[in-house]
Structures are given as C-alpha cells and as structure tokens.
Amino acid sequence: MSDKRDLLILGGGLVGMALALAAARKGLSCHVVDRADPAELTAEGFDGRASAISTASWNLFRNIGLADALEPFGCPIDAIAVTDGMKPGRLDFQPKPEEGSLGRMFPNRLLRLALFEAAKQEPLIAWHPMANVVERHRGTHSVSATLADGTVLPATLMVGAEGRMSPTREEAGITMAQWDYSHRALIAGLTHSKSHGNTAWEIFYPAGPFALLPLLDDEQGRHRSALVWTVAEKDAAGTLAMPRDMFTAEVAKRMHGVLGEIELQGPISAYPLSFQHTVTITAQRLALVGDAAHGMHPIAGQGLNLGLRDVATLVDVLAEAGRLGLDLADAQVLKRYQDWRALDSFMVMSATDGLTRLFGVPGRIPSAIRRLGMGLIQRTPPLKRFFMDEARGVTGDLPELLKG
Fold it and tell me: Tens digits of per-residue pLDDT, 196-228?
C-alpha cells in the first residue's frame, strides 16, 4: 500500500531532521531518507564539532519542542571578542543582561541526539536510516525515491538536504557559484585553566581565523572550549601530523594566554573550506535547504543557522499553501520560498566571504586599517547593535517559527 507523504526529505542531518520536525508541528507528513547510521552519528568521538545556535534558531527549537531536551547542554554566548591577531583595537559585542545572550553553543552530537529522539516519537515522520536512494523521480503531480531494497517512497514535494555534495541538486542540474578557499578548518576540543566567561573569541590571522567557542564545563568541572583553527591547505597535512604536545603548543601560542593553560581533548578533525551558492534553490517539485543550497566559510558560525532559516521559511510557506488548499509543490508556492530566502542567504554568504578576504590580507598597513574600522564600530553603539542583531538572526522578515 502506498504511503504517500507531503514531503520527501533526502538527507537526515541536522537541517533535514529539523525540517521534518518543523513540518510535523504544522501537520505535514514526511519521509526522511539518510544513508548514515544514526548510532554512528551520535557515538562519542564521531564528530567533535560544535555549533553556535542563534537566538532565532533557538526560537525554532523551542517552537518545535526541542528546547527542554537541549537546554541543559547549551552554553550561553554572552559576549563575542573580535581581534586582529590580538593587536590593540579589539572589538567587543556584549548585550545588556536583560537582552539575553547572543546565542548558545552545543556539541553537534547532542543536537543530533535530541533531533533523532524527537523524530522517533513523531508519527508524521517516516524515518529511513541507512538507506541508499537509487532513483529519484519528479513528475507533474508527485515525486518519489526508490531505495536500494526496491522500496518506493512517494510524496508531493522533494527536498534536497544532503549537504554540499547533494546528489539531488546535481541530478536536477542546478548550477552553483563556487570556489575553494584552499584552507582547512581544524576542529578540536580544549580544556583550560581560566574560565571563558561565556565569551567567544574570533582571532583573525593572515593565514585564517582562529575561533575559540565556549562550552559548558565537563563532569570533572574543567573549563572547555571548541577550537576552530583555519590553516592553509599546504600546511594542513603537516599541522595534523604534529605530535599532540607540539600541536597544543602551536594553539597556545595563538591564544596569547586568554584562557590560561590548555590541554587538547579528543581527536583532531579537518574539513576543507569552500564557497558554494546555487543560482536557484527550487526546481519542479523540488526545494533545497541547508548546505545543499549554500555552503559557506565557518568564519561567523552562521552555516547551520542559515540552514535553519531555510527550514523555518519553507515550512511557513508550505503551511500557508496548505491552509489555502494549494498544491504544496505549486510553482508559485516554491517561488515564494525562493524569493523569501534569496536576499538573506546572499547577504550572509557575501559578508562571510568578504570578511575572510579582508582579514586575509597580510601586512601592517592593512592590519592598521582593519583595526581602525573595528575601533569605529566599537565606539558606535547603533553599528554594534546592528551586528549583534544580525548575529542573533532577528533582523528582516522572519518566518513564524523563528519568532520568540
């Protein structure tokens, strides 16, 4: 018997599963197909990455019922310190206490655990893990995916959420603007003797940004942070091959003692950095979300938040179409999603790319010019307010799920 659903979500990662849950809260049913084994994705040590969840994204989690499960594990970001190589002219973003934090830091593993557990309990979600799609079909009136075991999953709208290498996007022939930064992000966990004070550090060096992101203390009471260190591709292999003591010493040298004595915790992982932005995020009976639509530099920690804004916008558009009795994959419905997301995604992508290039220019004069500009922002409260609101994701025309 055919189990036709409203959505066929290909990709069950953080963005894909958030979409499934958000859609379910609006009464929309879905198939979620993912190649990975959930047990591996949530295993200790599988992924040392952590994500900054903006205020708007936290509102989404609250509105889809995840806040209670996640709240104990999130470290508030009460301030962001931005500096050009730790030279004078530091820029501080720190809202007033009554305004709340700038976001929350969560280990990706715990985000996955919360999303997967919620998905298991939701009858409107048919989850197909460890499944390979061998055929995709987008017809005039419906879509479907055929799995390797012969199972056919029919739906009204197909959503590509497989990430940067999305086969759904490639099969649809959607073109992208893309380039390689020739850098890698090295990800590691740190413990340190000084408290981070819930402050995130973004230290810019000519070779690339060096970020220290606050996490909650561990069970032994040790202070913890996540490290995201960008290195040139030509230096990545040598850096990764360093003995752990030498690697730790190199990290400490770039930290200038801001967190005291440090120790490296867990494995070091590395990810190549590139820019990808699709010409369009829709096609016939198809919508793209998350990294399938736009892959960006992690310089401002906005990649996941941008994907969650896709989620909230698409669900808002689909829920409205459902109320009006429209086909969820009607061309005008998908155009509304495309138009709503176009400016925001372009602005965020352009800003992160511009920052990467601006701070990558070496030399004393470029550094002095950058620090002069940072000093101007530091002394101009309206400018600081604008940047803090952007970091929170609370500017522009927000879909309902992103509102408090």
Answer: 999 999 998 888 889 999 999 999 999 999 999
DSSP per-residue string spanning 246-313: HHHHHHHHHHTTTT-SEEEEEEEEEEEEEEEEES-SEETTEEE-GGGTEE--GGGS-HHHHHHHHHHH
DSSP letters spanning 128-156: E-S--EEEEEE-SS-EEEEETTS-EEEEE
Question: Helix-strand-coil percent breakdown of the chain, rounded to 5?
Answer: 40, 30, 30
Tell me the CATH number at 45.
Answer: 3.50.50.60
Position of tokens 């002095």?
368
For residue 393, being part of any structural domain is answered with yes
Q: How far is the C-alpha of 64 from the C-alpha of 396, rounded, in Å?
A: 21
How many CB atoms sit inside 10 A of residue 345's CB?
A: 21
Domain that holds residue 319: 5-178+275-402
Residue 88 DSSP symbol: S
Mean pLDDT of all residues in 234-260: 95
What is the end-to-end Cα distance of the chain in Å, rounded? 41
CA distances from 133 to 11, 29, 37, 116 (A): 10, 19, 15, 20
Per residue in 47-99, pLDDT tens?
Answer: 678 999 999 999 999 999 999 999 999 999 999 998 988 888 888 888 887 77
Q: Per residue in 303-339, pLDDT tens?
A: 899 999 999 999 999 999 999 999 999 999 999 999 9
Q: Which residue from 36, 18, 194, 181 is spatially nearest to 106, judged by alpha carbons? A: 18
Q: Which of 323, 304, 293, 345 is nearest to 400 (CA)?
A: 323
* Cα gap 272→26, rounded to integer Å: 37
The owner of tokens 């998905």 is: 119
- Report the pLDDT value the prediction gives residue 1, as an integer from 0 to 100: 43
Report the distance separating Cα 291 and Cα 105, nearest Å.
20
pTM surpassing 0.90? yes
Inside any domain, residue 128 = yes
Q: In degrees rounded to 5, what are phi and psi of residue 302?
A: -105, 0
Q: How many residues does the chain have?
A: 404
Q: Is residue 134 part of a domain?
A: yes
How would you class 110 by CB atoms within 10 Å of its CB: exposed for 0-12, middle for 13-18, buried for 19 or more?
middle
- Number of domains making up the chain: 1
Average pLDDT over the chain reads 91
* pLDDT at residue 12 in the model: 96
